[in-house]
Design a protein that fits this description.
Blueprint (H helix, E strand, L loop, with lengths): L17 H10 L5 E2 L2 H7 L13 E3 L4 H13 L4 E4 L16 E4 L6 E5 L4 E5 L4 H9 L3 E2 L12 H6 L7 H4 L6 E7 L5 E4 L12 H5 L8 E8 L1 E2 L4 E8 L2 H12 L4 E9 H11 L13 E8 L6 H14 L5 E4 L3 H12 L1 H8 L2 E7 L5 H15 L4 E6 L5 E7 L6 H21 L24 H14 L12
Parallel strand pairs: 2-4, 3-4
Antiparallel strand pairs: 1-2, 5-6, 6-10, 7-11, 8-9, 8-10, 12-14, 12-15, 13-14, 13-17, 16-18, 17-18
Helix pairs in contact: 9-12, 13-14
The protein binds flavin-adenine dinucleotide.
The site of flavin-adenine dinucleotide has 39 residues, from strand 3, helix 5, strand 10 and helix 12.
């Protein structure tokens, strides 16, 4: 199946002729275009590390006007383009494998006005996510899009992927925190969508079409972010639990708890072992081996005068009823950071340990327990011999399923086997009406599997919409199935 069939699929690597390169150099300021080998590698890839980067050039516009002029030039000359943010994507969406020109937003990193009345911040797409947090912190505000790659990912990439992260259970996806967008189509049209309006029921909201579109429709260049007040006081717990069913029982209790849940993250025992092995990170429990699962819980303490008492009673109840085996509560911001480190360093530790095949899936929360049972049986019956690491934002039904390459297996053989594993896994997800990509998008990685989560009718409409925005099929042509 192909998402954008009917579009021109590249048959051979795109190359830029000398005359095109000279034309670009003459039209734009010095440093706009690079063909330096280190830039081609660096800006042509993302975090997936599966697809070899192979762009023909990188361009670094500094303004929406430059993006518009460059895309119009590419459209006229039928040049394929891949927009690129912080390149932390985990689906290969920003990887240029076919000689596409990478349009990096890295130089569009200016922040504008922070409006403390409207709680908004204007930014360019290349601003790093964490820089937004730092800017807002001074006003006791935040942009609640938060995850381990925030020190490198860009706001534009967050919007293009409709990023999730550790606070979705409290604040929802990036989509909820975007008021306005400026974006440029392949034909060079500049779209100014919704400005800073909270309310605007005038026709189709194109802004929401672009959020999560992975750069296949337009290049996002600017945004008006919606901000929220920082939570008053946070408590961070780390619990050891018997097994995965116990995690879901704990989640029931958390749902009924006397607080606002900010994060409910889980990891299996083998994730913790790798954290210990690679980064010497471990929770302060004497015994790690008798617990199969761990949960990081962050809550906003109830504001009432007896808030602390309510929280203490709730916690004591968990231990009395044997719902948790062990637990620790951070006593300082430093300790809270250390506990968060146990969750946030998993991806990186796994990547250091070996070659990992990643899946980022979503299930209805109510089906998680039986899905995980089926998943375990699927691996033990049909694909034993692979170590599987599961962690993620279980509070919103999102699991990261990571299969580690066995040391003795050749990488090509592993990739082949994983393709087979995925077919069974995706069929299982489909059975539960889940999603084959919860947060990371489709990119190059899942381009053949969209049909497991979307119907034929939906995919036909997606193709038609793509054609409206990009009639020649030049923008991020290779991503999507
Ligand atoms: C350690 C780690 C942890 C992560 N945790 C999470 C998590 O918890 N939740 C989550 O959702 N993601 C997570 N990610 C994935 C990733 O960080 C997010 O998807 C992030 O939003 C990508 O932003 P980026 O700027 O790096 O985008 P890139 O990787 O550069 O690009 C991603 C996609 O967006 C397109 N794009 C980029 N910029 C633009 C633009 N300005 N206009 C149009 N299209 C554009 C690209 O072409 C590509 O298709 C994690 C990644 C890592 C490495």
């Amino acid at each position: 199946m192909c998402y954008f069939t009917g579009m021109t699929q590249p048959k051979a690597r795109q190359t830029l002729s000398d005359s095109v390169i000279k034309a670009i150099q003459a039209k734009y300021p010095q440093g706009f275009l690079s063909v330096l080998p280190e830039d081609l590698v660096n800006y042509g890839k993302d975090w997936t590390r599966v697809f070899p980067p192979n762009p023909s050039a990188i361009v670094f516009p500094r303004s929406t006007a430059e993006v518009a002029s460059f895309l119009a030039f590419c459209n006229e000359n039928s040049i394929q383009v891949v927009p690129s943010g912080g390149r932390t994507g985990l689906s290969g969406g920003a990887v240029a494998t076919q000689g596409e020109v990478v349009l990096s937003l890295v130089r569009m990193n200016r922040m504008g006005k922070l409006d403390t009345l409207a709680h908004t911040l204007e930014v360019e797409a290349g601003v790093v996510t964490e820089a937004v947090h730092e800017r807002c912190h001074a006003e006791n505000l935040t942009w609640p899009v938060d995850f381990a790659s925030k020190g490198s990912s860009h706001v534009g990439g967050n919007i293009a992927t409709n990023a999730g992260g550790v606070k979705v259970i409290r604040y929802g996806l990036t989509r909820n925190w975007i008021l306005g967008l400026t974006a440029v189509t392949m034909e060079g049209q500049v779209l100014k969508l919704n400005g800073a309006l909270e309310k605007n029921n005038t026709g189709l909201d194109l802004r929401h079409l672009l959020i999560g579109s992975e750069g296949v429709l337009a290049v996002i260049t600017e945004a008006t972010l919606k901000l929220v007040k920082n939570p008053e006081s946070l408590d961070v717990f780390f619990f050891a639990l018997e097994d995965i069913p116990a995690v879901l029982k704990l989640f029931h209790e958390v749902r009924r708890g006397p607080f606002q849940t900010m994060a409910f993250e889980f990891l299996t025992r083998n994730c913790l072992r790798v954290l210990d092995e690679i980064k010497s990170l471990r929770p302060p429990f004497s015994d790690l081996d008798s617990h199969q699962a761990y949960v990081l819980l962050e809550v906003e303490r109830p504001e009432s005068s007896n808030g602390q008492k309510l929280l203490d009673e709730w916690l004591a109840g968990l231990f009395e009823r044997g719902l948790v085996h062990d637990g620790v509560l951070a006593q300082s911001p430093k300790e809270a950071k250390e506990l968060w480190g146990l969750r946030e360093n998993i991806s990186e530790s796994l990547a250091h340990r070996g070659f990992v095949h990643k899946n980022d899936i979503a299930l209805p929360v109510a089906s998680l327990e039986s899905f995980i049972d089926d998943l375990k049986n699927y691996f033990s019956d049909q694909h034993s011999g692979f170590e599987v690491f599961i962690f993620g934002h279980i509070g919103d039904g999102n699991l990261h399923v990571n299969t580690m390459k066995p040391d003795k297996m050749d990488q090509d053989e592993f990739v082949k086997r994983c393709k087979k594993i995925d077919q069974g896994l995706f069929a299982l997800i489909q059975k539960y009406r889940g999603s084959i990509s919860a947060e990371h998008g489709i990119g190059l990685l899942k381009k053949d599997a969209l049909g497991f989560s979307r119907t034929h009718e939906e995919i036909v409409l997606m193709k038609q919409i793509k054609k409206v925005f990009d009639p020649k099929g030049l923008l991020n042509l290779n991503i999507g199935p």
